[in-house]
């Protein structure tokens, strides 16, 4: 069951609690259902302590990882996985079923009509959207706008849900949320209450914050996870070519976790990325820059957007890579302030 928004007497919108809604089906199967399949409640608690709160999420982990959880033997893990397979279907489905599953995808408005049209309706759930560009190109401003638009009801092109914000650069400003909320006709206090925020200082801290999100998303209706920025701490904590392989491996593990969160809880993941100089860009390219993170990050992102400054307050967005959107299409837009 997901949340919805109700109109208050003063014409503002406020998010309702999950338990107030009873006409929507759950998008995932709670890990507690394993008990009915004969799994010991103590073993279920061990899974929860390891950050696994749904049967869907359980099936996204390897048996090698599960046996690494203290107190779970290989025999127990085999039994747990067999029980989970009876609850959720992770085998083959038909193309028609896949199309039906895609109907659960929610597109969240960016606050810009031009940008929404470019993205086919907005930022998608069950997907990772990456935006990269120089400083002051609009990446973090879009993140702040999405914090508000995600809380709009679906008939207003919102996501009917809460927002989780992981800040690695110290750029989140709650005072910027206030005018955006007022622009959308929402109560700023309620909007801020429905955003959970964490400041990460190391790449390990960043990953642990993702692990802790599963418990919250299993209990409350979240629709958006923002990581701003995804690469900053990795560039600080790993230095030189000697640590590059280790950095990319750790980055891949974190990106894999983001992908699983997006699909497990039907949330949109919006992550910002930095750019680096591209010496191989060639002398005929006026501004040779490329997104940081290499191929590992490139393959993890579902949709990649390139931002750059335009005239005045305008920003230009170009679809750099997407499975279902035309490539190299650029537009100019002004973000909601």
UniProtKB/TrEMBL annotation:
InterPro entries: Dmc1, DNA_recomb/repair_RecA-like, DNA_repair_Rad51/TF_NusA_a-hlx, P-loop_NTPase, Rad51_C, RecA_ATP-bd, RecA_monomer-monomer_interface. Pfam families: Rad51. Keywords: ATP-binding, Cell cycle, DNA-binding, Meiosis, Nucleotide-binding, Nucleus. Residues 104-275, 281-330 form the RecA family profile domain. It comes from the Eukaryota. SUPFAM superfamilies: P-loop containing nucleoside triphosphate hydrolases, Rad51 N-terminal domain-like. PROSITE patterns: RECA_2, RECA_3. GO terms for molecular function: ATP binding; ATP-dependent DNA damage sensor activity; DNA strand exchange activity; double-stranded DNA binding; single-stranded DNA binding. It is found in: Nucleus. The keyword ATP-binding applies. One of its GO terms (cellular component) is condensed nuclear chromosome. GO terms for biological process: DNA recombinase assembly; DNA strand invasion; homologous chromosome pairing at meiosis; mitotic recombination; reciprocal meiotic recombination. Its main location: nucleus. Belongs to the RecA family. DMC1 subfamily. This is Meiotic recombination protein DMC1 homolog. It comes from Castanea mollissima. The lineage of its organism: Eukaryota, Viridiplantae, Streptophyta, Embryophyta, Tracheophyta.
